[in-house]
Amino acid sequence: MKENPELKTMQATLSRQGIEHQCLSSEELKQRFPNIQLTRGEVGLLDKFGGVLYADHALRALQDAIRQLGGIVRDGEKVMEIKPGLPVLVKTTSESYRAENLIITAGPWTNQLLRPLGIELPLQTLRINVCYWREKVPGSYGVSQAFPCFMGLGFSLAPHPIYGLPSREYPGLMKVCYHHGNNADPEERDCPSAFSDIQDVQILSCFVRDHLPDLQPEPAIKEHCMYTNTPDEHFILDRHPKYDNIVIGAGFSGHGFKLSPVVGKILYELSMKLTPCYDLTPFRIGRFPGIGKAHF
């Protein structure tokens, strides 16, 4: 990537937090990672503590911990109605639940649950193509070769970042994705007829061809996920403006999972009326004009 303001911000943050990192020229990057093809003027910022979280393993560990602590995990139930009050009543397709406090973290379905509660957040739901690319030589972009995760910024062909994870999830396939997508209803995420715009896949094919020459330049597997973006791509972590026993976590904009431990802590603090351990000003609902009040 060529130097840009976002890269400089990342470098400043790493320096401020005392995290070891290196700024690498295109020649140094090529020497360290020879199967990345670079052009003159591209530079890199290496965070030696970066890594990969495997979502399925992490979620399984979380659910196991919840059960061990006496919690109950209810899966496969669709929330049909939320009635505010003391207690809050939540009706699902299977049962009704009452609680003193409720935390809503419903991803792309957030506004469907919030509209009956008198508020609609400025959320954009996007369908993302999750692409996996076959290695020409198995393992060449793998974890065993210490190939890094990466985020590519400032490419002329891509208005949004491109990111990649080393091959492991699917043996012999590397995950390289575009950090943006098409507007979509989450109920239609897997309906191919609803989405004909494949510009992002074409962008990725060009990127793989030009920068990752040891991958086949057409995706071997294409899956889908959903992003729920806010206008500034910062999270929403706040109480409902009318019902202070309802807490909202939303708008994670494609980068929330890795921060879920601290987000969970903050949502817990809000729900228990504790003073948050972090300044939540950047994450308040009220930062969006006209959204800070409930409407009925």
UniProtKB/TrEMBL annotation:
Record domain FAD dependent oxidoreductase: where: 5-270
Cofactor (UniProt): FAD
One GO cellular component, as annotated: peroxisome
Molecular function in Gene Ontology: flavin adenine dinucleotide binding; L-pipecolate oxidase activity; sarcosine oxidase activity
Annotated signal sequence range: none
Highest taxon listed in the record's lineage: Eukaryota
Keyword set, alphabetical order: FAD, Flavoprotein, Oxidoreductase
Pfam families: DAO
SUPFAM superfamilies linked to this entry: FAD-linked reductases, C-terminal domain, FAD/NAD(P)-binding domain
One of the GO BP terms on file: L-lysine catabolic process to acetyl-CoA via L-pipecolate
Signal as UniProt keyword: no
Presence of the UniProt keyword Transmembrane helix in the record: no
InterPro entries on file: FAD-dep_OxRdtase, FAD/NAD-bd_sf, MTOX
Protein family (similarity comment): Belongs to the MSOX/MTOX family.
Protein name, entry field: Pipecolic acid and sarcosine oxidase
Naturally occurring in which organism (per UniProt): Rousettus aegyptiacus (Egyptian fruit bat)
